[in-house]
Amino acid sequence: MPSLPPIARNPLSSLHRRQALNLGAALAAGLWLGADARAAGFPQRSLSVIVPYAPAGGVDIVARLVAAPMGDILGQPVVVDNRPGGATNIGMNAVVRAAPDGYTLLLASNTLTTSKALHPRLRFDPASDLSPVGLIAEAPLVLVVNARSPHKTLAELVAAGRSRPGAISYGTAGAGSSGHMASAQLEHAAGFQAVRVPYKGGAMAMTDLLGGRLDFMATNPLEVAGHVNSGTLRALAMLNRDGSPLLPKVPTARAQGLDLQATVWWGLVAPRKTPAPLIQTLNEALNKSLATPAVTQTLSDMGATLRGGTPAQCAGFIQAETRKLAEVIQATHIRAD
Fold it and tell me: Are 279 and 270 in contact (CB under 8 A)?
């Protein structure tokens, strides 16, 4: 599988154009609806954003990044509440069961679109029992190995997996997470089998990868760029089609012969039946927080593409991802445990 040089591009100019279009449309929509469509007197106390992962992972980082400016905009603190476990179903269930009063939100990510397909006995459906507030950002995933790994290239890792089925392992931040789905798609596309080792968060999986107890991991660049640049991890491939400005020298899997498109995304959702005026108020606060220079710059530094937009756009994205990944799960016979 020959490696091709990444195509030179200017990701920041594209990012800023998309920010201007998405955030401008969302804010204009809020102004057009007028004050009558918003929730008068909301909020009157602090809000909680539940993160269904342990602290220090990518989802937790993004949650804390947007929580502070949202609190400033809303005039009440926005507190991050970590509820790891149950392949994120514990945290999601807490939001599903919360009062639909706008005070409890979920920092949603990829598992929202895979939990029902992976857990058919789940007593709730994340895609339909939660009300979208808005998207935050999306970032590519990168395949990394320990710097002491004998696998110097993606081709070598694939060859090892093919020659010894089940002999190499990878870590994930839970069943259905972005890293799990990306790794499963890689196995399916390349025709090899590896052992999945689930964790309650990406930080714990990264600790074992750095300790040499895992063979590879698919994760977002913001969590590993420092390790790659310092030489403790080796990046074998970007798993999206365009690469990442955070790791510009890392070739895509597509350039190495495997057509993959795997990303991690973040958004805010609320309990189902949360009144539309409250959703609108929260959406406006989210979009305004994303437009602040500190948040915009930090997400850009993370290699993420800022999304923003309306609740309807968020809903459409979640529905499309849910359909696509349900097909992947069925085709590859992925199981939660």
Answer: yes
